[in-house]
Specification:
mainly alpha, flat, EmrE-like, transmembrane helix
């Protein structure tokens, strides 16, 4: 009933689609600041939308693209606020 080839292929797909990305995210959490990992993970919907469009020729609705744009804008905002706050903190240290 179950063919070994199909079972092997299913296990390979499971490994590449779930276990490998999860282990890479855990490795990133250990090596990168949590803020950077959070921003990168929040950009995953944009990457998935673009991959779907370019590789699979899938079309997202206007509302879905708006949602992707809002998540991306929030990521950019988080980086901009952190960067400007960090720069101000360093300027404050320079004046002491």
């Amino acid at each position: 009933m179950v063919q070994p080839h199909a079972l092997t292929l299913g296990l390979l797909v499971a490994l590449l689609s779930a276990a490998l990305p999860y282990s890479l995210e855990l490795t990133a959490l250990r090596r990168l600041p949590a803020r950077v990992v959070g921003v990168l993970q929040s950009l995953e919907p944009a990457a998935a939308g673009m991959a779907g469009l370019l590789l699979l020729h899938e079309r997202l609705s206007t509302l879905q693209w708006l949602a992707v744009g809002l998540v991306t804008a929030a990521s950019v905002g988080a980086v901009a606020v952190h960067t400007s706050g960090h720069a101000r903190a360093q300027q404050g240290d320079d004046h002491r």
